[in-house]
Design brief:
Blueprint: E1 11-15, E2 23-25, E3 34-36, H1 44-47, E4 55-59, E5 75-77, H2 86-99, E6 103-104, H3 107-111, H4 115-122, E7 128-129, E8 133-137, H5 141-150, E9 157-161, E10 171-173, H6 176-180, E11 191-196, E12 207-215, E13 218-227, H7 242-251, H8 256-271, E14 275-282, E15 288-294, H9 311-325
Parallel strand pairs: 1-4, 1-5, 5-6, 7-15
Antiparallel strand pairs: 2-3, 8-11, 9-10, 9-11, 12-13, 12-14, 14-15
Domain ATP-grasp: 120-330
Keywords: ATP-binding, Nucleotide-binding
Protein name: ATP-grasp domain-containing protein
């Protein structure tokens, strides 16, 4: 790593959600609120001291023409969810194209990282199962059931609002009747993702969800969530699973990584992202059942005080991310970085 790298010439591409809404925390007469922007790459919360000198460019609705002149410097796109930042990303993409400079996680690639688009990009890949996913909008549950039938999708299906993460508002429908039985006003007119569900219990009957951090050409296993049910999140971890997870973390480098590395690198090539995560199941042959792959995942949060088994992967991810940020020649969109400030 280059500890002395100065990020003052870097341009951070930031944005306001399409709906103009952010979460404000700690409001009060004597306190300034903290604004929480969901759907970002999240690492500024943990590397902010290193990137404090970088300049920010903010994009906001509405869509439309803009006039902007910027100084030279590599660009880092911090917007990660196309369903939350569609208009901001479209503006950022126009800027990135016009400038022709190095850009980490190009906005255009992020715009193509919705769940349905990722499923199509990975469909048919050797060593990968990417469940079919469609983005739909309906007047209610009965119409949605009809649309699913017309598309020939196979039950069970998972349904979630676009822009939702962490299992929020996620529903599993095992048959059409389950969906038709929901209240008439459920998600009326909302955009939702519908994904065909694939069982993934291991031979011992236990479910395991891996989170892979892809940082440039490095692949790091962040954690393994283990439980008795298919819905796996930090708060649904099974009891007495620590030894199993620790063993998998310890053996990953020598065991599964050499098997899956070519597949993961091909996923990165298809998605054209520099920094992103893959939530997946890995079977004994290293085949990936991809639950999601995008730039939204938080790798650096520490929910358990150290020391613990996650200290090493978190530090490895942090080091790899700083190294990649410091070397724009390694970015997928390396550009030329030679242009002066240019009007858009």
């Amino acid at each position: 790593m280059s500890p002395g790298i100065d990020f003052k010439d870097y341009l951070l591409l930031m944005g306001v959600p399409d709906d103009g809404r952010v979460l404000a925390q700690g409001q009060g007469l004597l306190r300034r609120p903290t604004y929480v922007f969901s759907g970002t790459c999240s690492y500024l919360s943990y590397l902010g001291d290193r990137l404090a000198g970088a300049r920010e460019i903010w994009f906001a609705p509405p869509a439309g023409p803009m006039s902007l002149r910027i100084a030279p410097g590599p660009m880092v796109n911090y917007l990660a969810d196309p369903d939350i930042y569609g208009m901001a990303l479209a503006k950022a993409e126009r800027l990135a194209r016009a400038m022709g400079r190095p850009c980490l996680n190009p906005p255009g690639a992020v715009l193509r990282s919705g769940r349905d688009k990722v499923a199509r990009a990975l469909a048919g890949m050797p060593g990968v199962v990417a469940p079919r996913t469609e983005r739909l909008s309906s007047a209610g549950p009965q119409e949605l059931a009809r649309m699913i039938a017309d598309l020939g999708m196979t039950y069970p299906v998972l349904i979630r609002p676009v822009g939702a993460h962490g299992g929020k508002e996620l529903l599993r429908m095992d048959r059409p009747e389950d969906l038709e039985g929901l209240v008439a006003g459920w998600m009326c007119g909302a955009q939702v993702y519908v994904t065909e569900f694939h069982p993934f219990a291991d031979p011992d009957g236990v479910h395991r969800k891996y989170r892979l951090a892809v940082i440039g050409d490095q692949i790091i296993l962040r954690h393994v969530i283990i439980g008795d049910t298919w819905m796996l999140h930090a708060d649904s971890q099974g009891v007495d699973t620590e030894a199993d997870e620790e063993a998998r973390l310890a053996s990953f480098q020598e065991g599964l990584l050499p098997v899956i590395a070519p597949v993961v690198h091909e996923i990165a090539r298809r998605l054209e992202l520099d920094v992103f995560g893959i939530d997946c199941h890995l079977d004994q042959d290293g085949r990936l059942l991809v639950f999601e792959a995008n730039a939204c995942m938080n790798f650096l949060a520490r929910t358990v005080p150290p020391p613990n088994m996650w200290d090493a992967p978190v530090e490895a991810i942090r080091t790899a991310l700083l190294d990649l940020l410091a070397d724009p020649t390694r970015w997928r969109h390396a550009g030329d970085d030679g242009s002066p400030g240019t009007p858009l």
